[in-house]
# Entry
Amino acid sequence: MNSLRYIPLLAAVAAGLPASGQTGLPAAPTPPAGTNTAPDAVSQQRQAISAMEQSLEVQRQAIRKQVEQTKSQPFFLLPPPARTPLVPRPGPDCDPLPAADVDSLIEPVAKRENLDAGLLRSVMQQESAFRPCAVSSKGAIGLMQLMPATASQFGVEDPFNPKQNIEAGARFLKQLLTSYNGDVPMALAAYNAGPGKVNDIGGVPFIPETIDYVRRILLLLPPIQ
# Structure
């Protein structure tokens, strides 16, 4: 209840005038001509007005106290999150790795993870165009565009290090292929959009970016002999 709306009524009562804008309140009966108003009734009326004014002042003080407490409290009550070391480092763009360097990085990890080297190379080409310093607008980093959580999952200390980045990306891709029983389109879709979205529909999600991503990588793969 907003007690402030009674202020005009109180002022009107104190002045002996009817309060305008107040409906539903019966007007006080007018004493007959020649009748004196009892002094004790006037005194009670003044006491009631004084009591209501005191109540309003208590409410005003309570509101002021709440406002001051709100101002003194910081906006963020939770402590700031711990700084993650996997943050994109600033700097200009870089050139793609030479083809010989890409091959020397891909071949051993593809053999170790039992992955097709052509698939790993095609994913890298689509993800970063072989640029080890690539950083996406979503925060994916390096040759295989690892998200910070994925890099942490596979123990990457420096996601801009080509060797560490490729090894983690290869392990992640192998993990997805195993989860989807070797289904390459589903594994690629999960690499791009996340396993959750693939699992929700049991296939490549209807996301234009993901559909185009899978299509481009499949076109980059060498034909099956």
Observations:
- Residues 95-179 form a domain with the Lysozyme fold (CATH 1.10.530.10).
- The longest helix spans residues 39-72.
